[in-house]
Request: fold
Amino acid sequence: MFGRYLHLIIFKNSVLDYLIFISTFLFGILIIFLIKKWILIRLRVWAKKTTTTIDDFLIDIFQSSFLPLFYFGVFYISVRNLTLHSILSRLIDILGLVLLTIFAIRFLIAIINYGLQTYWLRREKDTAKQRSLQGILKIIKVIIWGLGIVFLLDNLGFEISTVIAGLGIGGIAVALAAQTILGDLFNYFAIFFDRPFEIGDFIIVGDYLGTIEHIGIKTTRIRSLGGEQIVFSNSDLTNSRVRNYKRMDKRRVVFRIGVTYQTDLQHLKMIPQIISNIIRDTKDTVFDRAHFFSYGDFSLIFEVVYYVLSRDYNKYMDTQQEINLAIKEEFQKQGIEFAYPTQTLYISK
Reply:
């Protein structure tokens, strides 16, 4: 009696087929539940004890990307025990392909994001890279999603070659029309990976100077000393000679002083040594040279070269001021006079 009901046909499937479908589906759900309840929990406990983060990442990506696919996989295997209408069977196949493509794209993007965030940014130890990286990731996501959609359409039976050919012709036209924008985009990649400058660097480009505030996909913005914001296209910066003062380990300083022509020979010979002693006694400086440079129109000129062991401009100005005051004080002690523009008028009787 009961066996007769098992073979009762409903919508082209027997009751036994439906029971097999339900039991297979519930058994698969039970397996997934046990994986989540026992295996994943133990793996997370183990991962917390390790010093690396890749195990935590793999567990998270497995839970977010693969477990949802397992649910559909259980349903797909179970429903194959039933005789379905061709349209319904096709819809299930399409749904499976769509889900597989979506989760594969998400998995690939997560792998790239993790690689950039964990290994590259931590190795560089540059927090400013985090903001710049967001623009890179957006472009990578667009490319991967585009390739994924093309793959999906191809597997669904669409004539992709015609579409790609059309996109190729359209792409050439767009590239010609937007070659400036594309040039800035590629130069953004060049700036990001080559790092000629970074956010916070003080640079000089031609007649413009300031501190970099933002490096974008299209433009780079600089805050000038006057307070206004200067916007450069990325192509302008990569095609220009950029002087990056933040990368300067030490600053070379050259200055000249002039003394009067009435200064005697003995004092002239003393001046280089006086300046040398002053600079050597000044903190964070390296003396290079001091020489009697030339005969000026109204003065005897000495040229001095030294290095300030700092890139800070304020530090350089404080050091130069200290040296200037010390030279003034020492010259007064020795009776050496600084020269200033004068004219001597000889009147013939």
In short: Residues 2-125 form one domain. The longest strand covers residues 285-295. The CA atoms of residues 17 and 82 lie 6 Å apart.
